[in-house]
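thought: fold this chain, then report.
action: predict
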Amino acid sequence: MFEESKYYRPSGKFSPLGAVLITLCVTVLGVGVFFLYLLFNNWCPIIYLSIL
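observation:
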């Protein structure tokens, strides 16, 4: 019945502004998580929990 929409088909759309925004967001969130990990590691330096 709907054979043509059975599989993923890319739209071919690309936004340079969207690519820059997603890169900035991932960088900011990554730096934030990194600092939270460092704070946790200083607060609780047990090696078993540091792996998490």
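thought: worth noting. The chain is about 65% helix and 0% strand.
final: tokens above.
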